[in-house]
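U., I forgot to send this yesterday:
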Amino acid sequence: MILLVLGFVAFMASFVYLTYHFIKKVQNKERKLSKKLFYPLLIGGFIFMLVGTEIYDDSSLAQLDEEIQKNEELTNEISELTDENESLKLEVEEIQSDKEQVEDELESSQNELNALTSESEEHNEETQELEDEIDSLSNEKEDLTTTVEELEEENASLQTEVEDLQITAGSNNTTPTDDSTSSTTNNTSTYYENCTAARDAGAAPVYEGDPGYGTHLDRDRDGVGCE
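Result:
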């Protein structure tokens, strides 16, 4: 490369000297070209340029081969990177597909969870309503049980009063004849605790004056008990 530059400089210097010579020759026609200066510059520059060009060409060829080899290596690397890039693109697509599938499954699971949560809330509400209804029925049952107990106590008390009245009435009545005495004895000796007992004895309905008739059997006081 240096020889090529030196040859080019010498070659150009010979042309510059030649130009300078012609300019001076116009002014002085007797002026002569200096062969010792012109030809060595011209020939030497041309030789240096040829040698430099050959050396440069050899160096350029070697460098060109080296660059071609590097280019091939880079091409191979680019090809490998391209293949790797394609492979990565396929992996990314598969990952994206898996991601979408997982998102769909997650959304489906979330919808199912929301539905189950809603059903659970409805079930809890129904359970609470049933518990409230059970509490209400339990309270009503307690009230009815208390009422039944009170009625049973009242019924027992009334039956006791009826028995006392029947005993008192039997002891206070006089028997002018045998028939009346027999009738009173039958009325006071027969007693039905309730209508079930009267029906079991085959006496229902029990009319007023019949054996076993009592006001505890005739609640509407129409003279007919256990009707």
